[in-house]
Design goal:
7 helices; XRCC2; P-loop_NTPase; Rossmann fold; alpha/beta; 5-stranded parallel β-sheet; 237 residues
């Protein structure tokens, strides 16, 4: 069966978690998924390109294997690096050019054209940097409306909601639970529950696939032995 029909393939509405030790490549995986999502399926040289870059060949076409979709990216640990993502996109585009066009020098896009492809694609990634649990939760609640308005104005759908280091607020939330910094007892006692419910609502209203990263040193086979109150929740679809 094709990948789209396989039970092992990623489906809209799925929730996926990458976890492991720090500097284990989790964020790099997110960047790669993001760049192949926001890049267009293909690139065609237009007459506007010709005027801008003084190029005469109008038949250049490159299959980029992108999706031309949007990505919501929550940078909870404050380490999102747009320059790194951009550099990865430029490298990816050069590889696609080399693979697709090979020796056909007349069709190879200029460096300016490649940079233009990457910069236009970056408009489809929307980065949020909440620095408090309440800000994170409030943004999640407003996200379906934000996404709907963008889809109507920009004419592209969102494929992924990425949350880098979803456990960032774990100890902060735990402090709130133990010392009662937040006066609202309902929030204090159920903050994790609210995160989960907000993510479920986003999935139901938008159909996005949620991908999270989580810092962990516990091997996968030991997860079942961890008390549930010590685990950050993973939303079940």
């Amino acid at each position: 069966p094709s990948a789209s029909n396989s039970q092992d393939s990623i489906q809209r509405g799925d929730v996926i978690e990458f976890y492991g030790p720090a500097s284990g490549g989790k964020t790099t995986i997110l960047y790669h998924i993001a760049l192949t999502t926001i890049l267009p399926p293909s690139w065609n040289r237009t007459y506007e390109n010709l005027d801008l870059y003084d190029i005469t060949d109008v038949n250049a076409t490159i299959e980029l294997n992108g999706r031309g979709k949007g990505v919501i990216f929550f940078d909870l640990d404050g380490k999102f690096d747009i320059q790194r993502l951009y550099s990865m996109m430029i490298y990816y585009l050069h590889r696609r050019v080399k693979t697709t066009l090979k020796e056909d020098i007349n069709l190879i896009p200029s460096e300016s054209e490649i940079e233009s492809i990457a910069k236009n694609a970056l408009k489809r990634i929307h980065v949020f940097k909440p620095n408090l649990p309440e800000s994170f939760y409030a943004t999640l609640l407003d996200l379906p409306k934000y996404m709907k308005e963008l889809q109507q104005s920009e004419s592209y759908e969102f494929s992924f909601l990425m949350i880098d280091q979803i456990n960032t607020f774990y100890w902060e939330d735990k402090d709130y639970d133990e010392v009662g910094i937040i006066a609202n007892d309902t929030w204090k006692n159920n903050n994790v529950h609210y995160y989960v419910q907000a993510l479920k609502q986003i999935i139901e209203l938008t159909g996005v696939t949620v991908i999270t990263t989580n810092w962990a040193i516990t091997p996968p086979e030991a997860v079942d032995r961890i008390p549930l109150n010590l685990c950050y929740p993973v939303v079940a679809h």
